[in-house]
């Protein structure tokens, strides 16, 4: 024990005196503080503070390499000058030296990494971010992606020293290992790793985030899970095993060799236990490969739903969500006006249906094919109550776990009466595009949630902890990392990393009301009141809005303040108008061109910057056609439109919208003709 303490004290002095070792910590702290200063004086007003810690990824990568070099040099220098020969019992002394050095490194890492975590906390507090799980999850992220790679660097440096000694090849070896396994490879070989799903064995070879600018998502939190820690521990234990195994050359007795074999076996057993856990439990929303699989799925799967199986109506849903061990749903559906013995429902294909029972608890035969469930019944009653029990599995498109849920009101997270899938493939998007599943008629809902994550739904809360209400347009259920704030009559749900929402809300509210009021008058939208419950969450980086009778899901993916004209408000007209005018409608070239003109009109009226470029270019981009004739008509249309006065532009847009909704002849020539009719005052 005395020898171990002396070795620790000796190495502690060596490490403190080392310009390379202490300098690395100073370098990390300096770069962190510089990030604080840059953010404080950011001319664009960025506020995505959840992704702030990801900005240190390159610094951690550099620190990992520097620590590898330091420990390699320290150990190889001792062997070079024969310091190991000063002690009897080479294996025991070498093991004690490594243990003492490792204990010192862990102590320094814990203190200085803890100090950096405290600085990040103080930075959050200075910017007015309310205390929430964001703070504790930030510490978890720092532990996973800042601290553990630097622990890994220690054993890599020691192993290199024991393997090569004082040899120039050692530096080439360290560079290869650093590039192959270290966090740097996700930056250098991003195209390769973006095609690897989290369940693929090749994902073992990256220990850093796939994108340092995207380490935090609304609701879901940081890209940290148990599998993240398992992966890092796997490599740390593997490097420990390599160090222990290479000490074989210092073993002189049978007892020492037996100790090496036993130690290596125990470490190998530890890695064998960790290995299967590395590929389960990852947050799939961060996986580019898994999201692409969803895209391919909807590119190749076209569900067929027979109209004859949709002869029924849904009067009520009674929903139970159990998020304690996995996420399981039990949904009782009250059916009315049933005609026929076979009924079809739409339910997201990643949700595994276990059973369907009727009101007598009799099991009903069903077939689940992708997003479509077909149920057969023997009853001839025009009304019935069926209970669907299913497991909600996590996916890249729909985040579902005991720690987070994002189930918007236009998505089929309960069995829904519809003739289409919840998502559709779109070539101009990086992932599947949601297709509204909103019911138009009012439906009564009751909802109970059993879980530990913070939960929100738009339904009124009852005294027994359940939620109940009648809603047209569906209900939203969200659990995870977000905050709820009361601002005057408004109930705002927003990401946990947004500071000072109450301060910036008045400016945002002013534009929101103006756009909504103008839309109601311009397009004669009856019963389109602006809800006072606003959900401002966008875990997928989407820009869209979904209206319900009692809340508005406003997905604004912005790293800027809500009152930022260049970063947020300029996109608000496009998002609001899309949700108000086209709920449940499929995309078309006429619709996309209309949206481009309407968005530009609102931006001009509100004095906002343009979200695009030249109007002709925006029209061509929205239509995305290579046909020369179409491009020529679009240029003509743009010129004719630009010559209209503001009031006539308003009149034309209202008439064009009515024409598109009524399914009239949608030729571009007819649209140009409509512009001329408005110009001449004939309508």
From TrEMBL:
It comes from the Bacteria. The keyword Membrane applies. The keyword Membrane applies. The chain crosses the membrane at residues 20-38, 58-75, 96-124, 144-164, 171-193, 232-251, 258-279. Keywords: Membrane, Transmembrane, Transmembrane helix. This is ABC transporter permease. It comes from Anoxybacteroides rupiense.
